[in-house]
Design goal:
- This protein is mostly helical and 466 residues long.
- The protein contains 25 helices and two strands.
- β1 and β2 form a beta hairpin.
- α2 runs antiparallel to α3, α9 runs parallel beside α11 and α20 packs antiparallel against α21.
- The longest helix is centred in the last third of the chain and has 21 residues.
- It is globular, with a radius of gyration of 23 Å.
- The chain binds fe (ii) ion.
- Fe (ii) ion (FE2) binds next to α11 and α14.
Length: 466
């Protein structure tokens, strides 16, 4: 904003040092793909870079896209993109040097440092939608809940519908507002984004989160089903199918949950995309907590996780790998994951160490305890960390699996007073959840409070019927 530059710029007026409009247009299109969760943003920028190897912002875009995968298998490609950009640094403008510094932090394991560098770019260039996208999405990855909202708040008043991509800013803001429990504003911003662009999966996702957090299960099923054409074919479909399955799960519609798993989630993951396997594990573990027999599904999923058992790159992935290993009885893979993580925490100093040490490893061990029937030990591991789990990254809806595991373990450990307290807490946050009232009923039953148990069960039943 107000840079007074004389060179070229992207479609939002943000300065680009490379002097070829075709290359810049190609970058804009690749970024549009990324924002809309469609096509192949990296493939598209690769084509641009073939024709324009001196396009520094193109290399930086590619590297930035690869950061978000959180997988070791793309690490080499990410470093190569950064090095290609650094070799061109004499050509780069200040904004591009900021992106370069962020990417350098990232490849050195300083994810929080990278966010700060991208934030600094955004302060000078509030229409740098790439910087905003990276700050917001990395805040989600790292569990900076307030940052997810405030990174957008810092620039939001400067944007309006005349700036291309405004709907994406609305989508980011919607999600940030949802995670900070400002559900009414979140829904309004999300629906405004969808009024501009109905096929905007991130805004659909933000509204789905509002409906999930408010326990509007039937509304959530209707919302996602009625908009399937807008999300079921894009790159975000897997996670949105997972969200749809959560609504069915709360309503105890297990047949629909398994149908979604088998038709939409199970077949995926062939690309090796960890986000797909993560959603699959997150769903099967919830079914396990409900005592649903899922047959061979765990074994298939554990096969997909095994090659990355010792990656130690991202604790959030590791806990989902661990769910698969313990549930599929892959004791060697589970031990390999834990040993790798403990060794890594002793020697490394990158941003994932704290995530892994504080939440990742305790939760992994709690999962082993749960599987082996040591429910009391599972409770002891999870109680102290339950209010710090945001440090693991992901969303409240995703991390709820930890709190649900805790209350289920308390019930199975026959710690009914604790279970009742935890179940009450869940009802306070989401009183329209039949599953939450079922937990209350089970705790009361364990305590011998027959009339309370019947009342809670009646409430669950009436919510299911509604
Ligand atoms: Fe989500």
């Amino acid at each position: 904003m107000g840079q007074g530059h004389t060179g070229l710029s992207d479609r939002r007026g943000v300065p680009v040092s490379y002097r070829n409009q075709d290359a810049i247009d190609g970058l804009d299109e690749a970024q549009e793909d990324s924002l809309a969760f469609s096509g192949d943003p990296v493939g598209r920028i690769d084509k641009v870079l073939e024709a324009h190897p001196g396009f520094v912002m193109g290399h930086l875009f590619k590297g930035a896209m690869l950061t978000q995968a959180m997988e070791t298998r793309i690490y080499g490609e990410m470093v190569a993109a950064l090095e290609a950009a650094e070799a061109l640094s004499a050509e780069a403008n200040e904004r591009e040097k900021g992106h370069m510094a962020a990417l350098r932090c990232w490849v050195e394991g300083d994810f929080f440092g990278a966010v700060q560098k991208w934030e600094a770019v955004l302060v000078h260039h509030p229409f740098d939608l790439l910087a905003l996208q990276l700050v917001h999405l990395t805040d989600v990855l790292l569990g900076d809940v307030v940052g997810q909202r405030d990174s957008v708040a810092r620039v939001f008043p400067l944007w309006d519908e005349s700036v291309p991509g405004y709907e994406y800013v609305l989508g980011f803001y919607s999600f940030g507002l949802e995670e900070t429990r400002d559900f009414a504003d979140a829904e309004e911003h999300g629906r405004r984004a969808l009024a501009i662009r109905p096929g905007h999966p991130y805004a659909i996702h933000a509204v789905a989160h509002v409906l999930e957090m408010q326990g509007r299960q039937a509304g959530g099923i209707w919302f996602l089903n009625s908009r399937k054409d807008d999300w079921a074919y894009g790159n975000f479909r897997n996670h949105l199918w997972w969200h749809l399955s959560l609504f069915h799960l709360d309503l105890k519609q297990i047949d629909q949950v398994l149908a979604i798993y088998d038709q939409e989630l199970r077949g995926s993951g062939t690309s090796g995309d960890k986000y797909e396997e993560l959603d699959s594990a997150a769903l099967l573990w919830r079914l396990k907590l409900l005592d649903v027999d899922v047959g061979e599904r765990w074994s298939d999923l554990a096969d997909k996780w095994e090659p990355s058992a010792t990656d130690t790159l991202y604790a959030f992935n590791d806990v989902h790998a661990m769910m698969s290993f313990v549930a599929a009885n892959r004791k060697d893979a589970a031990e390999a994951l834990l040993t790798a993580n403990e060794r890594y925490c002793d020697h490394a100093s990158d941003a994932n160490v704290a995530m892994s040490r504080e939440i990742g490893i305790p939760f992994c061990r709690a999962l082993q305890d749960f599987q082996d029937g040591r429910y009391g030990a599972c409770v002891e591991r999870l109680l102290p960390v339950r209010y710090r789990t945001h440090r693991l990254g992901g969303s409240f809806a995703q991390r709820d699996v930890i709190a649900w595991t805790l209350v289920e373990a308390a019930l199975r450990a026959r710690q009914f007073e604790l279970a009742l307290a935890l179940a009450h807490e869940r009802c306070g946050v989401k009183p329209s959840s039949p599953q939450n009232w079922t937990l209350v009923a089970r705790a009361h039953k364990g305590l011998g409070n027959r009339s309370h148990a019947e009342r809670a069960q009646a409430r669950a039943t009436s919510l299911l019927a509604a």
